[in-house]
Amino acid sequence: MFQAIIVALVVFLTVGGQELLGFTMIGRPIVIAPLIGLLLGDMATGLLVGAALETVFMGVVNIGGASSAEPGLAAALATAFAIQMGGRVEVAIALAVPLGIIGLQIKTILYVLVVGPFAARFDRLAAAGDATGIKKLHFGLWGLQWFLYALIPFFALLVGSKATQKVLEMIPDVILHGLSIAGGLLPAVGMAMLMKILWDNNVSVYYFLGFLIIAYFKVPLIAVAVMAVIIAIVVAQGDISKMKLEKEIAKKLTGSGAVDSSGMTASQLENEAFFS
């Protein structure tokens, strides 16, 4: 009962509160999983699950109809199940993706059933200029919607704690081994999804540079991150200098911009500004 209440409360405050005061990102696995691990007395498992699931869901951004999974509920249940199963992180991670998909569908249904019927009420309050009424209705519906959503992990853990253990004991070892392998592959899938979105041929050389440094030179990840920050600063400074140079050239050019009053061309002005 205690674990069920704790996980439900965390889901209510993080997943529900993520957009209450702006998009705070507190509903991400990297936040939820360690928090649940801390409250349930197994911080190490929470950190492991949070880091792994953040990698899986890093490329998942639910915008309008382009939605795939709800990582907050998945992280909460996966962490709780992993702790209940004695640290079986790989199995819990493999269960996280279907849990996230189911969570998103329930979240969408709650939007339709709880918030949808009050759309006309919002319009009437806005037409009457009742700002206080709009705020009360908004926060009231928020509380009701996410209270209902938090009941999912509550009953899942309340009913499923012992049931989950019994089901796992009935599952053959070969299937559990397969789930463990799938859980190990999911972070790579998440990184591939993120790379597909961010990939640019102009900067792809940095990806291969990072891979080379880690794989062959065995440089620690923190050192590689510091090197990446330095490279980013150097590139940004170069872009800023280029923008300033273009502005100076634009100021010196007159009329059509081909030749200035001294008879110098744009190319000559650029060279002069560069060497100066």
From TrEMBL:
Location relative to the cell: Cell membrane
Gene Ontology BP terms: phosphoenolpyruvate-dependent sugar phosphotransferase system
Origin superkingdom: Bacteria
The keyword DNA-binding belongs to this UniProt entry's keyword annotation: no
Keywords carried by this UniProt record: Cell membrane, Membrane, Phosphotransferase system, Sugar transport, Transmembrane, Transmembrane helix, Transport
PROSITE patterns with a match to the protein in the record: PTS_EIIC_TYPE_4
Broad class of where this protein is predominantly found: membrane
InterPro entries: GatZ_KbaZ_carbometab, PTS_IIC_man
CC per GO annotation: plasma membrane
Record field: transmembrane: 32-53, 91-119, 139-159, 179-199, 205-235
Membrane topology (UniProt): Multi-pass membrane protein
Keyword Transmembrane: yes
Record-given protein name: PTS system mannose-specific IIC component PtnC
Source organism (scientific name): Pseudolactococcus piscium MKFS47
